Amino acid sequence: xxxxxxVAGLVAIGAVAGALTTMQLQAVARSTTSPLPLEELQQLAxxxxxxxxxxxxxxxxxxxxxxAIAGMVSGLDPHSQYFDKKxxxxxxxxxxxxxxxxxxxxxxxxxxxxxxxxxxGSPAFRAGLKSGDLIxxxxxxxxxxxxxxxxxxxxxxxxxxxxxxxxxxxxxxxTFPVTITREEIRVQSVRSKVVEPGYAWLRVSQFxxxxxxxxxxxxxxxxxxxPNLKGLVLDLRNDPGGLxxxxxxxxxxxxxxxxxxxxxxxxxxxxxxxxxxSPEFYQRRGGADPLKRLPEAVKKxxxxxxxxxxxxxxxxxxxxxxxDHKRAVVMGAQTFxxxxxxxxxxxxxxxxxxxxxxxxxxxxxxxxxxxxxxxDVWLDETAEGNVFAALRMREADxxxxxxxxxxxxxxxxxxxxxxxxxxxxxxxAKRAEPPKPLPEFGSNEDFQLVQALNRLKGKPxxxxxxxxxxxxxxxxx
Length: 477
Known about the structure:
alpha+beta, 2 domains, 6-stranded mixed β-sheet, 2-enoyl-CoA Hydratase, Chain A, domain 1, 6-stranded antiparallel β-sheet, 30% helix
């Protein structure tokens, strides 16, 4: 059971990358200059009429039209989406970094929700939840059998409402209930620590509204503790992306002024753009330049950027820019490969259209779409290797992904991945215990972080002997 859930969780990385995409917010729809296809619209009206009058049960007209819009958009690519009232609210919560809930970062372990970390100051933190706690029930609902999304939705709710969590604490071999009052939570998308004298770790988990401010604050704290910093590890592993301006700002923090960070190209004139490492490309209207507070040493500190196949979109922009300008060594695994920009166009106060409007390119002109950033140094996840590497999905594996030229879907690779999945699950089923979960990013057991620090210190690095670049389909057919 644990093996299957772990496999499902790894595959879900693709879904996360699609949910939090590199995007821009723009005003409502433009008028089109091309004539409407009247015959097809008449067919749509005819189908609507037939369903309304002939279907076995009465149907809601508004739902029919909403479903038609959603179907039209979902047929474009994996990242275009129609937002109804509910999904638009969830989307805005995701980009703002604010939501109403109990305040825990979670994962899944053996079918249960695992507390990775309670958010400092949150209701869960005050209630005494600890890293490693397992949630077995949410109110009267058993967690086993729920997906992570389903569990999250049950823990979220309205402010000042209560939820009872049943906790199993392995370290104490006991189960106990905790009643928590929900409140607005502000997610910390940036974490950092000085790992050892002279060397620091800075993790960006996604690019939200407050990410740049949090990033600057964490870097200031690092330099207060280590004024003569010798090396910095920028950790973008499993960062699914977010706001484009955040990616430009964080790249600009480490790059010379005015160099190109990323370019975009699409059908509309304003989708053809070049974003540079200067304040006008990331500064909020009327606000001060948040990067002005950073010490000048940030521009020159030796750097390693850690990425993996869960690094997508905005995190790929940062990795690609620092790699192209030879500002940092990129280490880890080939990234997700989401090289497209989504624009959110409000339709009503409560609904919107998220639509792919451009592809983006690194400063050297590389398209990342369906390929990703190839690391300078390949690293396994653990000292023992990559248990689940063959199973991970990327942009190129998603249905209807944007293709490059004559690129075609690689059915052979899909078949190989499915065979690898079945083989791995069979192997895991024969084991007495499930494989040990991967260590928490930034912990003392984080193998990739240790290798990144070795690189910064000039020590030997345990480079992967098995990982190789996954070519786009057009290069493998």
